[in-house]
Specification:
2 domains; five-stranded mixed β-sheet; GppA/Ppx_hydrolase; Exopolyphosphatase/guanosine-5'-triphosphate, 3'-diphosphate pyrophosphatase; pyrophosphatase activity
Amino acid sequence: MTNAEQTNTTKGPVAVMDLGTNTFHLLIADGQGSNYQELVHITEPVKLGQGGINKGVIQPDAFERGITTMNRFGDHIKQHHVKAVKAMATSAMRSTSNGPDFIAQVKQNTGIEIEIIDGNAEAAYIYQGVNASGCLGNERSLILDIGGGSVEFIICNNERIYWKQSFEIGAARLMDKFHQTDPIPADCIGELNEYLEATLQPLFEAAKQMPVSRVVGSSGAFETFAEVIELEKGNPFDLKTLKCMEFEEDDFIALTSRLIASSHQERAVIKGIIPLRVDMIVSASLVTRYVMHKLGIHQVAMTTWALKEGVLVGLLS
């Protein structure tokens, strides 16, 4: 069961796996381009980076969770007689010494060949997914994709990418470095902001040359922001039927401020925050707020489409 090229020459279902630091995603679909029919969509909180993300190793319990999930994904792929498979691993597998052992065991168990993609390729796939969602217009936007291990920044519009870069400053890494006490203390926020200021200089330089007026957050934390805001307004909310959403700036600032100031117990009872994100949503809020403030951005949107959708649309086109 080898990784497919970017063209699906055989008719039938295709499978895409996005194997991230926090979450493993499986998407099996059939059809044409962005009008595909979803057959299976599983999001599993594997937490591959737990306990080892900044130490460069996948811990044994996380390793086992990952293998168990991949075995299950393999069963779904067989059941749906999938014709083409693309499995991509990102930051956690890129930066750990036993990532290759994980990849070898998955191939032995399931036949699935995992491809480790670099940050540049990850950003390009994310752009494809966000653009296919219809969330981009003619104006320049900054796509912000906050993963557990890395964060991708893409300055773009609906016609092209102007600049892109991946930084190893994902929510799990930042939490491990700066969010050891809860609620996060003011001095830790200050240290985190200084770290972002130093690390994200390439982004700030690019944005001087190519100013952006809007942030588009792709999946992950931004789905949580959207769900919490809508549920608290009493609105029905279903991620399955949502591709794009524009935030009211006041709503977005109020929610992220509340999350940053809250304790674990307070976040855990907020409807719309899944257990995996109860703690990492603080780092995600801080990164987003810092970048918005630094670049003077007041428009915020989100899309549920990202890397896996970008790859899938390519396979089905």
